[in-house]
Amino acid sequence: MPELPEVETTRRLLAPSFVGRTIVRVEHDAPHRYRDTHLAHGRTVEHLDRRGKYLIARLSGEPALELVVHLGMTGSFRPTHTPHTRVTFHFDDGTAAYFQDARRFGKVAVVPAGNYRSMPTLQKMGPEPLSDDFDADAFARAAAAAPAVKPWLLSQLPVAGVGNIYADEALWMAGVHPKQTRLEPDEARRLHAALRAVMTAAIESGGSTLRDYAQPSGEAGGFQFHHNAYGKDGQPCPRCGTSIEKSVVGQRGTHHCPTCQVLRQD
Ligand SMILES: [Zn+2]
Question: Between the N and C ends of the chain, which has fewer C-beta atoms within 10 Å?
Answer without folding.
Answer: C
